[in-house]
Each structure stands twice: as C-alpha cells, then as structure tokens.
Amino acid sequence: MHAAEAARALKGVEMSHEKTIIPSSGWPPLMLGLTGLIVGVLCIIYGAMISNPLIIIAGPLLKLVSILTLCGLMAIAPNQARVLLLFGAYKGSVTESGFFWVNPFYSKKKISLRVRNFETGSMTTPEKKDAAGQVVSHKTRSPGRPSKVNDRDGNPIEISAVVVWKVVDTAEAMFEVDDYENFVEVQSEAALRNLASRHPYDSGDSAISLRGSTQEVSDQLTGDIQARLEKAGVEVIEARISHLAYASEIAAAMLQRQQAQAVVAARTKIVEGAVGMVEMALDQLAKDEIVVLDDERRAAMVSNLLVVLCSDRHTQPVVNTGSLY
User: Fold this and answer.
1) Full-model pTM
2) 85 and 187, same structural domain?
3) More confident residue, 323 or 111
4) Which domain holds residue 102?
C-alpha cells in the first residue's frame, strides 16, 4: 500500500479504484425502444378513433418508457471509456468499444484512454460555450515555453520536456483529482524543475549531467513524474528533455568557457602527439647512428621540432648550408 493510501485509510477515506463492467448489447433495447415509440403513437390514434381513454393513456406511457429505454444507449469508440454514476455513486467503468445499453438513470462521464503528449510550459485554454450550449471557441494549446531554473551549480538554464502519458485507471482520474489533465501538466513541470536542480548542466567528470547523460536523465524524469501521478490513475510512457540551453544572461560567457575547454583539450592532444614524434625521431637517429648530437644540440632539435609540430601556423624552415654546428 502506498503512503498516500495508508494515510487515507487511517482517516477513513476510501480511494476510488476502477471497476470494469461489461454491459449488455444495445441493439435489442434499440429495437424495443423504436417499436415502443411507434406502438405508442398508434395507441393514441386508435384510442381516439374508438374513444377508449385507457388506450389513449397507454400510448404516452409507452412512449415515455421507450424514451427512457433509448436514454440508456451509448456508443463507445476505440480507446474511449465511460464512467458510470448512479445518483453520485460510482458503479463501474466501461472500457470496451461498441454499442451498449445500461441503466437509463446512469450518468455517463466520457474519458479518453488514448496516448497523449504535451510539452512543459505550454498553456491550455478550455473551450467556451454560450448560454445555449453552443461551442464559441474550441480548446487550444499554446506552444511550450522553456522554464528558467538553476542547475546544481547555480547556473541559470532554460529547460523543457515532452511528456507522453495515458489514463490507466478511469476512477482515479475522475475522482481522485479535480482536473487530471491540468494535474499532469503542473506535476510534470514541478518534477522537471526538481530534476534540473539536482544535476549540473555539463560535467567533465563521470557525474550525471543534463547535457551529457540524456538517457539517465530521461529515465529519472519519467520515474519522478510517475511517482507524482500515481494517485491520478495516469501512466507516464516517456519523458524526454526537448530544450536545454544556458539562460541568455550567461550564454555568451558559458560559450567562451566551452570554447576555451575545447582549445585546451585540443592543445593537450597535439602536445602529446608531438612529444611522441620527437621521442621517436631521436630514438631513430640514435639507433641508426645517422648523427651524434650532444645535449645542447639535442635540446635545440627538440625545441625546433616542438615548434614545428605544435604551431598553429606553417613554419618557414632555415636550411644550414655550412658546417654541422
């Protein structure tokens, strides 16, 4: 049992869990309802013709029962579900697609089981309806804006992530949180900020960094978001960082630092190679006894070779046409 469930149990509050039900097919009630409507109209006409008040009264009653029967029909598309309530009491959820019939007094709450995704920092505008119930403006979502947060070293960075999720428990999604879609967005934003504050933007050692450890960071982010959404009946399929950059106020300085680190690393590699080449040249000269050099001339030769090999410009050699020294 999770800690939240244990706390609720101690307080006497029962958590809502999904109860799957399989309703009856909707085709027989559809036929009965339509037949009842037709028979009800015929009863009213026939009763008026023979002046029989009982038949006239039976006609509207039969139409009322037929209408109630038709109100219990519902069609469910693939990856859609219906949460059924009877006067405020949860009775179960229908998660299979098809044409069904349930108690006409059930309230049928529609909920989607499809895979959805969003980018942190985006704003959702709900649809608006007028007094007559007509949709004035449809639901829209603005593009995601990166969140500004400090990393572990205190550097301000801009970060955003794409979260892929779906509903796996319709009862928890409907009753445990007020608005599960908004709950997912807010908790994902909070988990992303918390993750960014635990790791550096970049790390030269083996520590996990936001830029260098993409898979590890994605796995941690997925786990952090899932832990926050357990009570909402939502499963996080994937969460990945979609934007990562230094904040504008320090971007130029950090770029210079990265360039300096790259130059130092390149120079280090060049020096290592040059020293190896000089050592190989001296060993080859000594082995083949091509020329015998004293310590001073060896030092001058090493200096000249290092200048030639480590210089970032082409050198102009000077040819000695006189004596050896």
Assistant:
1) 0.71
2) no
3) 111
4) 14-112
